[in-house]
Amino acid sequence: NADSALFKAKSSGREGYAFYEQELTDYARQRVELASSLRHALDNDELRVYYQPLHDLRDGRQVGMEALVRWQHPQRGLVAPGEFIPIAEDNGMIGAIDAWVLEQACQQMMRWNGEGNTLSFVAVNISSRLFSRGELAQKVASVLTQTGLPPEQLELEVTESAIMEDPDAAQKLLISLRALGVRLAIDDFGTGYSSLARLKRLPVDKLKLDQSFVRGLPDDAEDAAIARAVIALGKSLGLKVLAEGIEQRAQADFLRELGCNYGQGYHFGRPQPVASKSVDPDNTGDAKDSHPSTRN
Ligand code: C2E
Ligand code: MG
Ligand code: MG
Ligand code: MG
């Protein structure tokens, strides 16, 4: 009856609340623990750079690699950047982490060049927390000099929402980076609400269509409309468009027909560490399947 249903709802609500509180406490404790062990992660050599291929949608050719950081935690195993980048942004470690990834990626790109690889560029993510600080462009310049990597072989990715946190600071930073000759891409495009007036003035080369709009393709009419609009926008502003999170051939085909230039996703290949030999025996077939894997 209604009363007992209400009673059940209330009591499970209370239990739910207690459970939620417990979870929050666990979450907060975990975060504090992670924050303190993250301080030693760089010194203890626990960070890893994984690389995910970026492909030309028209001929299928691989054009680049995106560097994606992971944390090989001694107890927890491989920790995803979504779990520790926000912590690093709060505890001030992010500058050191992004600089380390940048160095690793530029060195690795030089190695690929030396091995006769024809990749055009390596892409590196930059946190918004580094925007307001003047030293980023200097750091990029010094890494390019130290590693000898030609600037046009480095692409820096900044998220659209990071740009919109402080558009004027972002614009200044992007102009100073552009002056170094590196490529610039706006990551997670479509989720950050940038104005067209702003976008027009940013010195960028590429829009990375956020994977949330790729997920429902080719059937979802709204995702299709957004993908079509972003691709048209890129074209009219003279920017290349890359679609993130392509897991199925049908998505790659659909995006190519819309005129999207590049693609990234499990359909082409998952993020992976660089194999010590030039051929990774573990890699066969993995690029084409779409089921979730712990290797990401
Ligand atoms: P992002 O730059 O947008 O990178 C793409 C993310 O999508 C990666 O997650 C990648 O593994 C995942 N992904 C790629 N293809 C697929 C697919 O087909 N399906 C699905 N479901 N996911 C796919 P990851 O490596 O966990 O990185 C998450 C985010 O963490 C990155 O998003 C980036 O914003 C940030 N990040 C990663 N490395 C760094 C870094 O070195 N510095 C900074 N500041 N941020 C980083
Ligand atoms: Mg990225
Ligand atoms: Mg993205
Ligand atoms: Mg993202």
TrEMBL record:
* Region annotated Disordered, chain positions: 271-296
Q: Where is the composition biased (Basic and acidic residues)?
A: 285-296
Q: Which UniProt keywords apply?
A: Membrane, Transmembrane, Transmembrane helix
Q: Nucleotide-binding among the record's keywords?
A: no
Locate the EAL domain: which residues?
31-285
Q: What is this protein called?
A: Diguanylate cyclase
What species was this sequence derived from?
Answer: Ectopseudomonas composti
Of the parent protein, the shown chain spans 471 to 766 of 766
